[in-house]
């Protein structure tokens, strides 16, 4: 676990653990709930989106329960260490978030609708923590796969900030960055669909109670992407 005796701080590239050139473990082939492959390449016509909103066990369940989501997998993203382990990520020395990759059918569920679920499922104003979970790996982040996703993410953040400010919350600390150059490293097998395997397992995910309006009724919703983003392999 992250050292709780000091304030969490992101490492520099020089301070980060080096990692390894190949994974130290294997990833299951299929989703235990949805039955579809976890890693790509994915079927044509699907889109990929990456979300970080705290402990990835509960976060992943939020998305696999959503109609139109084809598969989900959890991993580490946004840092420097190659092929990291869970223990390494929790040390705070990789720079990664605990992330969820969501592969979805945009004809059934839009990226804007997934953004609404993302914002409402956690508190994006807490910096390097979610509730009692403290560490840089628990920070809120969106890693976008197209200019359209980036535009929608930025617009939704502005819209939700207005909602949170009105409800008495502080400033959103969510980082919005391109997924390109920020490899998604799949996590160990026991983390994948953890709450399906352990129904009574720990879930630290909880929102603020502040609701973002439906994207179909707002200006930010018009920023949602209409094109199809490439569906990369899991280690892209």
TrEMBL record:
Region of interest called Disordered, as start-end residue ranges on this chain: 1-22, 214-236
Superkingdom of the source species: Bacteria
Positions annotated as active site in the UniProt record: 55
Domain Peptide methionine sulphoxide reductase MsrA: 50-203
Keyword terms, alphabetized: Oxidoreductase
Gene3D superfamilies hit by this protein: Peptide methionine sulphoxide reductase MsrA
Record PANTHER family: MITOCHONDRIAL PEPTIDE METHIONINE SULFOXIDE REDUCTASE
Family label: Belongs to the MsrA Met sulfoxide reductase family.
NCBIfam families, sorted: msrA
Protein name, UniProt field: Peptide methionine sulfoxide reductase MsrA
Taxonomic classification: Bacteria, Bacillati, Actinomycetota, Actinomycetes, Kitasatosporales
């Amino acid at each position: 676990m992250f050292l709780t005796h000091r304030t969490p701080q992101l490492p520099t590239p020089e301070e980060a653990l080096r990692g390894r050139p190949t994974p130290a473990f294997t990833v299951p082939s299929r989703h235990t709930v949805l039955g579809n492959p976890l890693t790509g390449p994915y079927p044509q016509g699907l889109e990929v989106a990456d979300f970080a909103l705290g402990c990835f066990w509960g976060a992943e369940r939020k998305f696999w329960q959503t109609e139109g989501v084809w598969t989900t997998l959890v991993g580490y993203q946004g840092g420097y260490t190659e092929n990291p382990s869970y223990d390494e990520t929790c040390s705070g020395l990789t720079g990664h978030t605990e992330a969820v990759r969501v592969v979805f059918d945009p004809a059934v569920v839009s990226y804007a609708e997934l953004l609404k679920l993302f914002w409402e499922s956690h508190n994006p104003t807490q910096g390097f923590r979610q509730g009692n979970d403290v560490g840089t790996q628990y920070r809120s982040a969106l890693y976008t796969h197209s200019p359209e996703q980036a535009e929608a993410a930025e617009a939704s953040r502005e819209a939700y900030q207005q909602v949170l400010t009105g409800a008495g919350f502080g400033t959103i600390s969510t980082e919005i960055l391109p997924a390109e150059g920020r490899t998604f490293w799949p996590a160990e097998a026991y983390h994948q669909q953890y709450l399906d395997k352990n129904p009574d397992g720990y879930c630290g995910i909880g929102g603020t109670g502040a609701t973002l309006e439906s994207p179909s009724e707002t200006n930010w919703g018009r920023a949602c992407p209409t094109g199809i983003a490439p569906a990369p392999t899991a280690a892209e």
